[in-house]
Amino acid sequence: MHLAASAIALPAIRQAAGAEAYPSRPIHLTVGFPAGGSADLIARILGQWLAERLGQPVVIDNRTGDSGDIATREVAHAAPDGHALLLMLSANVINAALNNRRDASLIGGIAPIAGLSRNPLVLEVTPSFPAHTLPEFIAYAKANPGKINMAINGNGTPHHLAGALFKMMTGVSMVDVPYRGEAPALTDLIAGRVQVMFTLVGSSIEHIRAGRLRALAVTTADRFAALPDVPTVGHFVPGYEASGFFGVGAPKGTSDAIVQRLNQEVGAALADPTLRARLIALGMVPMPMTPNQFGDFIAAETTKWAKVIQSAGIRPG
């Protein structure tokens, strides 16, 4: 009986020892977008926190290409020992829906660890635009179908899909004008060469405060603290909600002990007043979640945007 009990206990002892030894070497946090952007910035903020808490360096690896899928595939095929992590974001969910791929997508190859933030977008217009409120904008768009140019930050981006969802739910007709990035699109919006755009709050807030752009509404379900006077789209278009997100994942098969340890550390980061303030200043809303909650969130986002993509007839670009 003693031998049997020892045999049963041995795997648990080994698992506990492995969890205690984690991490045993530097952790690599892979980001699917270039250095200097918001994804890279939040990865570096989180990496510094984890390094201090876990006692090992956290190396930020920027693996750009294929709208983040190169980074996703790399982490999905890494050893599931907690030393390879992925900064998860909206682009990954949209890619899974847009390309109907699950092999190395967030759902197929990555275990969710924790949510980091929801990233509100803002519906904004050039200052010369005649509408000053969202109802006025919708009325003007309906009276002038196809005469409003809407800048989009690439095909299938959160900016693009936020606009597509808005057009579907309001019935307005606007012309999509694609750009290679958010910065050149904002330049043309400020200059009045396009009239409207959905952008990340963090990218536009200084332009809004300086009067170079006019914010009509934010896209999240609740108002954003940094723009308290700007209403939500959903206040005028019931049921509308669209935002980006950031989170953390690891290869499928990573032990529950490591997933829970990382989730606790991310949760502690999001509860830290200084770090929370940094995220809010960057236009993000802290989004603490358990691994199961984050997994359900990813599945719901994938289903939601797949419906928008299909209804709007959006194709991979």
Describe the structure concisely for a colleague.
This protein is α/β, with parallel strands linked by helices. It is built from 13 helices and ten strands.
Characterization of this structure:
With 317 residues, this protein is α/β, with parallel strands linked by helices. It folds into 2 domains: 165 residues, D-Maltodextrin-Binding Protein, domain 2 (3-Layer(aba) Sandwich), CATH 3.40.190; 117 residues, D-Maltodextrin-Binding Protein, domain 2. It is built from 13 helices and 10 strands. Strand 5, helix 7 and strand 6 form a beta-alpha-beta unit. The longest helix has 22 residues. The N terminus is likely disordered.
Number of strands: 10
Q: Which whole number gives the mean pLDDT? A: 89
Estimate what percentage of residues fall within beta strands. Answer: 15-25%
Task: Sum up the overall morphology in one term.
Answer: globular
Helix content: 40-55%
Structural class, please? alpha/beta
Low-confidence stretches: 1-19
Distance between the termini: 64 Å
CATH architecture of the largest domain: 3-Layer(aba) Sandwich
CATH level-4 homologous superfamily of the largest domain: Bordetella uptake gene, domain 1
Number of helices: 13
Radius of gyration: 21 Å
Structure characteristics:
317 residues; alpha/beta; D-Maltodextrin-Binding Protein, domain 2; 2 domains; 10-stranded mixed beta sheet; 13 helices; 48% helix; 19% strand; globular; disordered N terminus
